[in-house]
């Protein structure tokens, strides 16, 4: 297995291309036979042999233009076919073993369903191929399988023929007319319940919609199908993009490494992102289903019709598609809570990644295992970069740029530079400096310094940027940053600068620093920056807590108001860290009480504003964190908050009426606000009865889970009793039970490690299912601060022991769960050395996967 890194700079076009593929697949649990007939043409010089990718395949035979061909060499990951003509047909027969494929890449069989996952490099585990995204071919696929066990046989495109054989098997042939790279190949065989619908596009084309789910789960698929139709309509209205095949299929499977996959015409989904009903799914689950359904659908244009030239360009499709799904979700639900949700992801996870040894630009330069680069940087920071294009070009300009992108590149495999060039046609702003966002990693810090001259009534505000060096890049350049900029005085009057550097509320910062001048200023101004999170940056604003509260009161931008509250909490927690929590002035508590009172009817804003920043977010504004003292300070603040504000919290809690369950934005906001309030009230004398009442009365999973979360850590007896009740109700439904696994794994208690061992022995737990592993070990490593960061290092060791076992089964999932360990740089020296000791154990392990090797070795370099 090669541990060699590939570099973006070394890209070479393929020496051969494949125009058409005819595949015949005879399904068998341990010996599925693949016959693939490839039409191959040489596209570069004559001297080269054909080198096909292949991984874990048993070659049976190979023919060239119908004749047995023996001038071949099998190497570890490749098959070399020597001395081939310029155009020819290659027919390859090979066997694979889907049942023992626990890595869930390529073709695998789990729970009696065959399915595939080919992105990024999984097709080479099915047959020998030029498994790279810049080789585009049409596919015709015939599947054969037992008719009783696998009545449904699916592949990409349209079904064109089918038949039965005498031996109890049947077959179906599928044709996909759109040339595609191998990573978009898919097949499925199983026995499902089917939901059917149809959609007529604006131009009048009728599309069949099919959603395949586990038997008995049909009613839980309705919301996903409705979401799909909303996404289809939205893409037509917003970007003029219609669906292109006659049929669109979605299959929900229980064993899946990621969220979902956009295979042409045949999306495969983790059932977590399809199945949802009021009883089993929370409001957040409903939201996620709709956004993932939309994300995969939107890929049909941004990813499939226009695809990536090479994997370094992954953000070309992912950043753009995440931005599209965010815009869609904002339109379907609410702009503010969506924006806050995404900013939380950036601050909790992306900033941490950028500050770690895995730091990389949204277009990485160097990759050992591509699966490691499906990251928050490529996806979420990538989407932030697209959002900045949107800010710079405006709604209409962005649409024009997108139209130009499709006009130029439909049917092609292209680069991020091609995207920028298409966008450039729609604006006078020179985008070459802006394009540095593709090559520079790290989080820029925007610092503000102010100079006030009371006599002259003028104020200068200097806005400076600085990107600290990262593990992958020591030298940084100033970026082109759109900084949404507002300025207020203590009475809430808004000011803009005299030179007009701020245009339409945005300062385009393209230098290391710039100074803004303000006149007619009677008292010092308060800069309010990065409204709506206009750039993926940190801000150093040095505001006093009084000024933060003024920002909350007077800022026009709702995101800025929410953010000001986060800063207030951050400041308070810092006081508790210094042991001065008790001295926080009454004026601060009174101001917080006023906020709650004044916003009591604004459930959306209040719900968000009452969420105390997580431990992970707090880490991003601190260095060399002692996890246990920060965690305790946070918890002490939460206690003080709920006790001091108990009466107003309770009053607002009682004022929110929740009728019978509806999934609409008004009710979602009300439930969210109520559950956030319950979380605080759980720390008060009312806690036990409120939590038990809500659990007993709940007619939906949002309130059930809200009660459990409130009890967790605050009310051990209620928690124990309600968790037992929950388990007995949902024991038969592992997808729902994952919530229970996750709650147990994140509970801070002294015996958490033995609790984890019990969870791993639970009849519903299996190391083979990524959802279970994430619910138990992922939740613990990412979110159980006290347990994972135990001072004796036992939490780190526990996770490492498990990772050694998991890596042999599913390296991709293991390499995700190892992330918190690799981010040791953030913590105090004693923790650093305990974490590194475990990373060294992993690195020394014989047979470590390439996935783990890359992350662990980088983190120790
Ligand atoms: N392209 C999919 C995500 C995905 C990526 C890799 C996978 O396996 C390694 C699976 C899915 C998306 O963005 O939804
Ligand atoms: Zn995607």
TrEMBL record:
Gene Ontology terms: biological process: proteolysis
EC number annotated for this UniProt entry: 3.4.11.2
Stretches assigned to the Aminopeptidase N-like N-terminal domain: 47-184
Cofactor section: Zn(2+)
Annotated keywords: Aminopeptidase, Hydrolase, Metal-binding, Metalloprotease, Protease, Zinc
Keyword Hydrolase attributed: yes
Pfam families: DUF3458, DUF3458_C, Peptidase_M1, Peptidase_M1_N
Annotated Peptidase M1 membrane alanine aminopeptidase domain residues: 223-436
InterPro entries attached to this UniProt entry: Aminopeptidase_N-like_N, Aminopeptidase_N-like_N_sf, PepN_Ig-like_sf, Peptidase_M1, Peptidase_M1_dom, Peptidase_M1_pepN, Peptidase_M1_pepN_C, Peptidase_M1_pepN_C_sf
GO MF terms held by the record: alanyl aminopeptidase activity; metallopeptidase activity; zinc ion binding
Domain of life (superkingdom): Bacteria
Domain Peptidase M1 alanyl aminopeptidase C-terminal: 546-861
Enzymatic reactions: Release of an N-terminal amino acid, Xaa-|-Yaa- from a peptide, amide or arylamide. Xaa is preferably Ala, but may be most amino acids including Pro (slow action). When a terminal hydrophobic residue is followed by a prolyl residue, the two may be released as an intact Xaa-Pro dipeptide
Peptidase M1 alanyl aminopeptidase Ig-like fold domain ranges (all copies): 442-541
Family to which the UniProt record says this protein belongs: Belongs to the peptidase M1 family.
Function comment: Aminopeptidase N is involved in the degradation of intracellular peptides generated by protein breakdown during normal growth as well as in response to nutrient starvation.
Full protein name: Aminopeptidase N
Annotated source species: Salinimonas iocasae
């Amino acid at each position: 297995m090669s541990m060699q890194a590939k570099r973006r700079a070394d890209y070479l076009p393929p020496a051969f291309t494949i125009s058409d593929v005819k595949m015949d697949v005879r399904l068998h649990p341990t010996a599925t036979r693949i016959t693939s007939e490839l039409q191959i043409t040489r596209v570069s010089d004559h001297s080269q042999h054909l080198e096909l990718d292949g991984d874990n395949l048993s070659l049976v035979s190979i023919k060239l233009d119908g004749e047995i061909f023996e001038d071949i060499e099998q190497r570890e990951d490749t098959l070399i076919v020597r001395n081939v003509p310029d155009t020819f047909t290659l027919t390859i027969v090979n066997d694979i073993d889907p049942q023992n494929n626990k890595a869930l890449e390529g073709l695998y069989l789990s729970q009696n369903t065959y399915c595939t996952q080919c992105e990024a490099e999984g097709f080479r585990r099915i047959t020998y191929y030029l498994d790279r995204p810049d080789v585009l071919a049409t596919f015709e696929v015939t599947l054969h399988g037992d008719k009783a066990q696998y009545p449904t046989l699916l592949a990409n495109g349209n079904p064109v023929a089918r038949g039965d054989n005498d031996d109890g098997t049947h077959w179906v042939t599928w044709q996909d007319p759109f040339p595609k790279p191998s990573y978009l190949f898919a097949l499925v065989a199983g026995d499902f319940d089917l939901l059917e619908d149809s959609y007529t596009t604006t131009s009048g084309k009728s599309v069949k919609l099919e959603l395949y789910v586990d038997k008995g789960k049909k009613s839980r698929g309705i919301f996903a199908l409705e979401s799909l139709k909303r996404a289809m309509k939205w893409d037509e209205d917003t970007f003029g993009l219609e669906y292109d095949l006659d049929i669109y299929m979605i299959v929900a499977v229980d064993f899946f490494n990621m969220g979902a996959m956009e295979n042409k015409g045949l999306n495969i989904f983790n059932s977590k992102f399809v199945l949802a009903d009021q009883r089993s799914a929370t409001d957040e689950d409903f939201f996620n289903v709709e956004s993932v359904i939309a994300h995969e659908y939107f890929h049909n244009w941004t990813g499939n019709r226009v695809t990536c030239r090479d994997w370094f360009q992954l953000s070309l499709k992912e950043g753009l598609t995440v931005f599209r799904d965010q815009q869609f979700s904002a339109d379907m639900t609410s702009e503010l809570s969506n924006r806050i949700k995404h900013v939380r992801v950036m601050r909790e996870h992306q900033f941490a990644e950028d500050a770690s040894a895995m730091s990389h630009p949204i277009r990485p330069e160097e990759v050992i295992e591509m699966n490691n680069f499906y990251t928050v940087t490529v996806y979420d920071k990538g989407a932030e970069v697209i959002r900045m294009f949107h800010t710079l070009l405006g709604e209409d300009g962005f649409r024009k740029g997108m139209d130009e992108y499709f006009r130029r590149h439909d049917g092609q495999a292209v680069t991020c530079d091609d995207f920028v060039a298409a966008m450039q046609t729609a604006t006078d702003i020179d985008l070459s400096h802006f394009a540095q966002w593709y090559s520079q990693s790290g989080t820029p810090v925007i610092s503000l310094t102010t100079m006030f001259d009371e006599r002259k009534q003028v104020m200068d505000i200097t806005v400076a940027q600085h990107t600290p060096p990262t593990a992958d890049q020591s030298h940084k350049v100033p970026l082109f940053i759109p900084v949404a900029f507002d300025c207020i005085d203590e009475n809430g009057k808004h000011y803009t600068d005299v030179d007009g550097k701020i245009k339409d509320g945005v300062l385009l910062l393209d230098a290391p620093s710039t100074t803004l001048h303000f006149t007619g200023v009677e008292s010092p101004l308060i800069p309010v920056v990065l409204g709506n999170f206009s750039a993926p940056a940190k801000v150093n604003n040095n505001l006093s807590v009084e000024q933060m509260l003024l920002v909350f009161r007077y800022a026009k931008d709702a995101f800025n108001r929410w953010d000001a509250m986060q800063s207030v909490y951050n400041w308070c927690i810092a006081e508790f860290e210094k042991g001065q929590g008790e001295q926080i002035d009454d004026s601060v508590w009174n101001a917080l009480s006023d906020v709650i009172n004044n916003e009591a009817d604004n459930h959306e804003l209040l719900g968000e504003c009452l969420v105390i920043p997580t431990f992970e977010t707090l880490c991003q504004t601190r260095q060399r964190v002692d996890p246990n003292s920060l965690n305790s300070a946070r918890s002490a603040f939460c206690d003080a908050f709920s006790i001091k504000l108990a009466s107003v919290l309770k009053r607002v809690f009682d004022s929110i009426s929740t009728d019978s369950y509806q999934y609409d934005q008004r009710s979602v906001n009300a439930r969210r606000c109520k559950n956030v309030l319950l979380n605080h009230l759980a720390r008060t004398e009312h806690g036990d009865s409120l939590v038990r009442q809500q659990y007993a009365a709940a007619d939906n999973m949002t309130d059930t889970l809200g009660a459990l979360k409130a009890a967790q850590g605050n009310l051990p007896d209620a928690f124990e009793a309600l968790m037992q009740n929950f388990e007995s109700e949902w024991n038969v439904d592992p997808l729902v039970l994952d919530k229970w696994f996750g709650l147990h794994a994140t509970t801070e208690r002294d015996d958490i490690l033995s609790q984890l061992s019990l969870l791993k022995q639970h009849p519903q737990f299996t190391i083979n299912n990524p959802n279970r592993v994430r619910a138990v070990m992922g939740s613990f490593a990412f979110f159980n601060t006290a347990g994972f960061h135990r001072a004796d290092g036992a939490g780190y060791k526990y996770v490492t022991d498990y990772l050694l076992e998991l890596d042999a089964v599913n390296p991709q999932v293991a390499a995700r769960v190892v992330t918190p360990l690799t981010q040791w740089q953030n913590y105090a020296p004693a923790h650093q050395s305990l974490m590194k000791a475990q990373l060294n154990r992993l690195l020394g392990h014989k047979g470590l996967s390439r996935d783990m090797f890359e992350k662990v070795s980088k983190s120790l370099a």
